[in-house]
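Internal tracking record. Fields below are filled automatically when a chain is submitted to the structure queue. Please do not edit lines marked as system-generated. If the sequence contains nonstandard residues, flag them in the REMARKS field before resubmitting.
Queue: standard
Priority: normal
Entity type: single polypeptide chain
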Amino acid sequence: MKNKLMEWSKEKNDVGGRNGPRKKVVPVIRVRFLFPVNRFIRYSKHVRYTMRVGTDAPIYLVIVLEYLATKILELAGNATRDNKKNRIIPRHVFLAIRNDDELGKLLSAVIIAHGDVVLNINPVLLPKRTAAKEPKSPAKATKSPRKLMIRYVRWVVLMSCDCS
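SYSTEM-GENERATED OUTPUT FOLLOWS
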């Protein structure tokens, strides 16, 4: 009887124990991540912060990094749209991080190259807003954009030529 059980388990290619065939354990759940999970697993073993690394630790690390990257890119995209631009630059990433409370605390010591500084103007120093004034006479009404452009081009030509 025992020989028949062993033959049966060998035929099925299952490794059995006292309680029957063992289930296959898959350490990495197959989910589409932007960051490579296998590379994080390999690096966490080679870096040797600790003697052992759990199977879930690199996956959790990838999830957290993806969340942070997604959040920062979303806020930077909003800052880009607010500035009426099409491309995200380091300034937009900096503004996105500094204007968000949680990210500002997390990344307070981080210096972003070409990020400049956040402008903080006291509201008392800003000019007071009044109702829109109407032009006093029709002669001083706003000029057409074409006339303004011609005037500007003439001024640029005058300033650029060497008249001495």
